[in-house]
Amino acid sequence: MIETRFHGRGGQGAVTSAELLALAAIQEGKFAQAFPSFGPERRGAPVLAFSRVAEEQIRLRSQIYDPDVVLVLDSSLLEIMDVTEGLKAGGTLVVNSKQPVKELASRFHFEGSLWAVDATHIARELLGRPITNTTMLGALLRATGIVDIDSVSEPLRHRFGLIAAKNEKALREAYDKVEKEEIKP
Amino acid sequence: MSKRIGMEVSIAVAEAVKLANADVIAAYPITPQTHIVEHLSELVADGDLDAEYVCVESEHSAMSAVVGASAAGARSYTATASQGLALMHEILFIASSMRLPIVMTVANRALSGPLSIWNDHSDVMASRDCGWIQYFVENGQEAFDHTLIAFRVAEDPEVSLPVIVNLDGFILSHMIEPHVLLDDEEVARYIPPFRPVNRLDPDNPVTMGDFAMPEFYTEVKKSQEMALRNSRATIDKGWQEFAELTGRKYQAVETYKTEGAEILMLSMGALGETASVAVDRMRDQGLPVGLVKLRLWRPFPSDDLLKALGGAKKIVVMDRAISFGAAANPVAAEVTSLLYDTEPRPCIFNSVVGLGGRDVRVEDFEAIVKKAMQGHSYPGPVGDYDLIGVRE
Amino acid sequence: MTSKEKTWTWRDIPVGAVAENPGSSSEYLTGGWRSQRPVFTPDNCVQCGVCYIYCPDASIVMTPEGYPEILLDYCKGCGICARECYMATFGLSCFEMVDEEEFR
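The joint structure predicted for all components is written out below.
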């Protein structure tokens, strides 16, 4: 079972990222959950979303404390919280950042791999607005392989309709451009 | 043909109401029930469900509206949570005494105050004695299935009683997970057309919701009580027919690894799934632990529960609500009274967990069981229970 | 409730306790509750029907000729008809409340 925590700000679509990942996994015949950090929704406030993906039926109904993967939609969150909290040893952190991954790596001390991509740039260019949830999902899929990238197409179409193609393009762009750096404590 | 798709549990519940082809839906939105009724109003607005969606100004009105609609012979549905259920309270009793087969989803949420939008069972426990059939479900699939099962059972002329399907707010209502849905044809085979026992019909007038003198009221209450008790046969039939249709089997009381267990946990709702993971872990450690899950809360399945709990030396009952100042919390009170006459009488421990959205983890169940394994205090002091995770 | 229903066991109660004989409250005669009886004076009556509207027990019916008729099986003697009568404004109420004792 792979547990992922999504960090974003209200309105950036962290919950949608988690949903799309779960829907793609279910599409593949896997079992999956996606859920928000339960509570009131406030635009701009830091928010969390979660997903679990597994080959067998998932019976855990508690929240996620020790994720295998953490996805950060907005690099400004790095200044106000420790996004690696609870991240398992050997885990994966995927960050939206303008900084090259090697530079970004210097600020982290966990054991695992860091992946980074300038998703805001990609989203501005391809979607016309800095909403990075679908773009960063591409980076997440490259970094983790939780689901096949092609499995996301159908959930994207269902969710975004006419603008699904643009979102898929941004997703694939981030998939190709995301870069990796191993982090040692 | 059945299809497996990922969706939010609330949406799956709304889709079940659509498949059941409800005629009237009257609801007032309240967290965490909102997504259910939002989706239903969309389905009606888009013409995908031919129903009357009544936007009411309160839950008191929502319940009153479905009482009227059901009395007129319409298949009627509503959903609520917490304060909304509390506001419906007086009408709940009228719906059951009038024997109106309304189906309601309660996305369980804590009662104020302090204001909490998060999950526990205090809402439905405060309406425990309202005379409705009450199910608890563990996951999205069960929520979808039991929404259909509820219509099947409620409207059976042998039953003609309203049904509450309890699903844990947020923990289930806001969860995206896989569901196997049914199609219209399958549901039509499962749920026959609604043929009300009584109906407001100008050509054959009757008086409903009437007045009763003291020499009459006791008999009416006994008749209502027997209807709820006797509904059990149809409840079982509802599950059996559903299993024939889908292969998914449900029972009033379900057990998990209870064979050879000396200590049993008893839970209702979504707690059961996490508890089963805890049982796996403790079994791996060699601990003789099992789990009993109560799916049917009313009518209380006494015989099934006696059978499931029989032989255990210790029983830990999980409650997700406090019965303030009581001798025991709601579920523990029932179980204790049920087991009073059994020989040898087991030790009963009561843990209150997950109040107002407090997360309940596998580790919590392990700690609860391990503590109970060391204790042997029955009969303990009246009102003695553990409030799990409370800061002392 | 008729005397027959008073012997019903819980098994005899119709589902939902519906009254299958609607309008059965007409079998329940409340005239015996009365300590005063309204006595009608046709000469005062202008056939306005105010008494018919105000009677809280629907114990006044209007005759085909347009006059009120008191149904004494149901009238509880409240006196509202005598008070609300249009002609009472002029001290000429159509109804005079008379002690039941006078009729024994």
